[in-house]
Fold:
Amino acid sequence: MPFDTDSTTAFAGNRLSLYTSTCDDNTTGATLGAAVMYIYSTSTSATTNITWGNCNTGGFYSTSMQVRGFRQRDIAAVREDYDAVKKDWKRRRAEVRARRFLRDIIGAWAYKHYRRRGWHEVRGSSGTRYRLRPGMRVQVMKHPRKGEEVSHELCAHLDFGIPWYDSMVIQHLMLTSNKESEEQFVAVANRHDAHGPYPIRELEAAA
Amino acid sequence: MPSISTPSLEGDVKLSWNPDNADEVKNAKDHFDKLKASGHIFFRLKDGAKASRMKDFDAKAGELTCEFDPKADIVATPIPRGG
Structure:
């Protein structure tokens, strides 16, 4: 999940407050007359890397701080999406339609297996096995041939509000169509530990 | 009938056309071009076979392009974002 720079943010549960600089140019460290800090951050999975800098000197320190956790607004977005699937009849109707679309894409046989097992397994062009589940991260299986052990999870999906099954369709297509698409999916996805954590208790239990 | 399916808030939205009808083909191509301009990626579906990413090499341009195929079943989607 990307981290917003240029904001003052307090991580719930982590009690960390981050302040932006007032530099005009965060990358070159423009001098403003007073020492300020700027933040360069990258976020992979549930970890945000933060590097503190000093605009005055123009350089920055590599002192990194790793913060684990979910941003409040991401949790809210996931919760809102989850609740919509459970309670909003329009969303539920859209999910039914999207599930039919998934069946058309993966075929009746694979769909039948998905309904029985609760996950749809595909093999990427790289030979990696992936398990797709609606509303949950893609599981990357540890062994390419068989086995139940999950190596890690990848999270990449369409915008919140679009049916979970549509995201599953796109995950299926990207992972199976060709090597470049699979690599693109892996590149855009955030990597998470196997089996969670998830910001919603119900998903955590299912993971 | 060939079609372009696109995920949406209501589930997938499908635009179908008659490949023998020039107006419908043009309408479908315009729709395809709009989606392409907005950064969508495309997959061509094949009965009984796995889908393929639509990327054709244009020898003159020296680059990969993605051209509308009026006879294909296509899925168009924005690139998923990391979550």
About this structure: The radius of gyration of chain B is 13 Å. The interface with chain A takes residues 5, 7-12, 41, 43, 45, 50-53, 55, 75, 77-83 of chain B (CB under 8 Å). The first strand of chain B starts at residue 3 and ends at 6.
